[in-house]
Amino acid sequence: MRRLSVSLRWKFALTVTAVCCAVAAVLGVLVHNAVARQTVGEVRKDAGKDLDTALVLFEYGTSREGINSVVDPPELPLPLRKLVRSGRRGSMVGAYRGQSVMWVAAPANGQIMAVWSPYGSTRRSLEEFDTAILGSAVLAAAVVALAGLFLAHRISRRLTTTAAVARRITAGDLDARVGGEGRHPGRGPAGYDEVAAVAAALDSVAGSLQSRLQAEQRFTADVAHELRTPLTGILASAELLPEGRPKEMINDRLRALHRLTEDLLEISRLDSGAERADLAVYELRPLVERAVRTTGFDTEVRITAGSDPDTVVETDRRRLDRIITNLVSNAHRHGGPPVVVTVDAPADGTPAIEVRDHGPGFPEELLHHGPQRFRTEAPDRGKGHGLGLTIAVGQAAVLGIGLRFGNAPDGGACARLELPRYPEAGH
């Protein structure tokens, strides 16, 4: 069952409206009771005076003209009749000759002396007063609800802006700031509320995070640059060593260190955000086959049935080569044979390149959080620096293409790269 989601703005407005309605209801009841008690009391008081006069006149046998008095009236309400029979005096609203009246009755020589006073106008006045109270309460609730909705909208808009900036920062845009959008521009300390405090804290966190990442990027780039020159010299010097197993081991380790240095330099350039793609038009199949050959690994290239052999894409060949070679190398080093690169180029669909091995598959952490540099240790998948997949993701971002990682149902890791088709390929 789908849960109904209510925004903070409407929660705030509904809460304010509910509180306003509750207050209006309580005040309405109190005012109604007070006014009704006073109005009915006045009618009962006047009728009581007439009853006192009627009792005196009845006792002396004098005519009761001018007074609405009746002895033992059949219309007298039964509760009031019982009350008077018990020897007490009382009053009650009832009816007499088809009209609403206020009855006041008392014992009179074994009989019941009752005086009635018209009550219809009083009842109508009370009903009109209740209608006025209800109308005022509804109007007040509507005004308060609109005011609450307006205030909640302003708060919600500022919180939404802050949340949007937080999502941009999470996505990697460390230049994003809430700034004046989350606060009241031009206001002093009085305008600095809790929402503005949250926005300021987010900006502070983003600024601190950006400074630290920039410092780490500069450190990585500086270290890589400082290592490159002596490494080049050491590689050249190692070639002068006599042939043999020691020379091979030294050259192998030096080449690995040289590749690591170049990878660090490339990552520092990608992190800086200054990389731009040099786009050109290429045929997809030869492009993939050439990139796979340069890896030096035994890799099968397949073309899916129904693919267009003349599919043309617009891309940066150097960067795409780098992505494919890194994916293929990673599959051979950390996966299991056979490694297959599949080119899927439907005539009316999105061209895609899929690199799959038949090893243990990608670890769950990588599938959920993506590749992380220097964190590739996983059961049954070997060890590495984690830079190959990180560079592939970074280069794909520069090209603006999608790169997804997953595991095949029957085992093995699968990386799928989707490329944009050249717009004029069909013309």
Automatic annotation (TrEMBL):
Example GO molecular function: phosphorelay sensor kinase activity
Reaction(s) catalysed (UniProt annotation): ATP + protein L-histidine = ADP + protein N-phospho-L-histidine
UniProt cross-references to SUPFAM superfamilies, sorted A to Z: ATPase domain of HSP90 chaperone/DNA topoisomerase II/histidine kinase, Homodimeric domain of signal transducing histidine kinase
Histidine kinase domain segment(s): 222-423
Subcellular location: Cell membrane
InterPro entries named among the record's database cross-references: HAMP_dom (IPR003660), HATPase_C_sf (IPR036890), HATPase_dom (IPR003594), His_kinase_dom (IPR005467), HisK_dim/P_dom (IPR003661), HisK_dim/P_sf (IPR036097), TCS_sensor_his_kinase (IPR050428)
Highest rank taxon of the organism: Bacteria
Any one Gene Ontology cellular component term annotated for this protein: plasma membrane
Naturally occurring in which organism (per UniProt): Streptomyces chattanoogensis
Protein name (Swiss-Prot/TrEMBL): histidine kinase
Domain HAMP: 153-214
Top-level EC class as recorded in UniProt: transferase
